[in-house]
Specification:
The protein has 408 residues and is mainly α. It contains 14 helices and no strands. The longest helix is centred in the first third of the chain and has 33 residues. α3 runs antiparallel to α4.
């Protein structure tokens, strides 16, 4: 197994950090801005594809970090640190969403007992990350964005095996062969899901207003009941549905560590960025051509997106420093923003009108300004609190407690 130092000099590493690694926060910032605005204005464009960037960059970041450590780390400790980073904050947001729903039911005079039980069951499912196994609970109110967390946890579970298996091959040809094998596995899984489980890839339900493109409908032949909950979007909340995207990031990190100068010369190029735009558009077209197109669309969208977004980050770094820094800061906060923003979208669209605030009476421009301001302020305030929570000892204690109970 090679380490970063065995393939790069100190100068190369510094060069890579300024040219590639320094661009990743911008890419995450752009992705979270897309997702935020997509939810805030309720669709109508391709903002849902920001999730694709996060998946590829997750594979890239985890792999590059492990390569820098070489063999000097324990997978047990790696799991503990990963879970400390993701789960406690996620649990806190689940509880916050539960309290928001209770307030909604109280102020709207809905059946408190019945809805309390329903919200409590949903909270339990969310905490155990089981809610994503049913299409009926995957987008549970008030925070539909939480479907993404079990997907990421799935990647964490298989990452050590993928990592050690990939590094057994020390040639570019070997890495690409593994990538193709994993991508083929993704395509097979998606094909089975689409044609046997009425699969409906997440995000594909959104129409593209600018071109008046209506989404294609899934087969929808299975009986919709609690007996068969694992259908429609549910199978696409599990890691096999996008494992090729994650692996794409892993291979990118390995190639970068092996030959940073060549990697940078190839991928930081306007021609490559333009190629990425065409690949991305081709993938987006597959969303609308038919069910068979759904098998390949997400991977092709991800490949094209990453190519042109990384080049866009490089252009911003060279020409518009202030915007580059601003979006990079958003990228640093992206996890907290992702976890919290959809709660305030729900409160604005559902809770405020329910308690008598006539939002529809506002003019179009006023409505947009008030909506954006309300959701941004709520997201910023809760993100600040989550950041303080993350820096405390509580996440460590929560995971330690959870592991102790699991062992018992």
């Amino acid at each position: 197994m090679f380490t970063l130092k065995s393939y790069t000099s100190e100068t190369d590493v510094s060069f890579v950090q300024t040219k590639i690694l320094g661009l990743l926060d911008f890419c995450k910032g752009l992705a979270i801005a897309w997702v935020f605005l997509f939810h805030c204005y309720r669709g109508g464009w391709f903002g849902w594809q920001g999730v694709h960037i996060f998946i590829v960059l997750s594979g890239f970041g985890l792999t590059y970090s492990c390569l820098q450590k070489g063999d000097n780390f324990s997978w047990k400790q790696w799991y503990i640190k990963r879970f400390e980073k993701v789960l406690p904050t996620y649990w806190v947001v689940c509880l916050f969403g539960f309290l928001i729903m209770l307030c909604h039911y109280i102020f709207t005079n809905e059946d408190i007992a019945k809805n309390f039980l329903k919200a409590a069951i949903q909270l339990k499912l969310d905490i155990l990350v089981f809610s994503k196994l049913s299409h009926q609970t995957i987008f549970a109110l008030p925070n539909s964005a939480l479907w993404f967390i079990p997907l990421i946890l799935g990647y964490y579970l298989v990452f050590p095996w993928l990592y050690t298996r990939t590094l057994k091959d020390e040639t570019t040809k070997g890495y690409l062969s593994i990538l193709l094998g994993v991508v083929a596995l993704e395509f097979i899984y998606r094909g089975i899901t689409i044609y046997w489980l009425d699969g409906f890839p997440i995000g594909y339900e959104n129409r593209f207003d600018a071109l008046s493109l209506e989404p294609i409908k899934p087969l929808n032949r299975l009986i919709d009941s609690w007996i068969m909950p694992f259908q429609l979007q549910a199978p696409f909340a599990l890691f096999p549905s996008r494992i090729g995207e994650f692996m794409l990031g892993m291979i990118g990190a390995i190639l970068l560590a092996k030959n940073p100068q060549k990697f940078t010369n190839i991928f930081l190029d306007c021609r490559m960025g333009l190629t990425g735009v065409f690949i991305w558009l081709a993938g987006y077209c597959l969303v609308y051509v038919g069910l068979w197109g759904w098998i390949f669309a997400d991977f092709i969208i991800s490949l094209g997106l990453v190519l042109w977004v990384v080049n866009l980050a490089w252009i911003f770094q060279q020409r518009w420093g202030f915007l580059f820094i601003t979006l990079s800061q958003l990228g640093i906060w992206s996890y907290y923003i992702f976890l919290t923003h959809d709660i305030f979208v729900y409160v604005y669209w559902e809770s405020l009108p329910a308690i008598g605030l006539d939002i529809d009476s506002l003019s179009w421009s006023t409505n947009n300004i008030v909506r954006l301001g309300f959701i941004m302020f709520g997201t910023w305030a809760t993100s600040c609190l989550l950041l303080k929570f993350d820096k405390s000892r509580l996440p460590h204690l929560m995971i330690k407690n959870s592991l102790t109970r699991a062992v018992k």
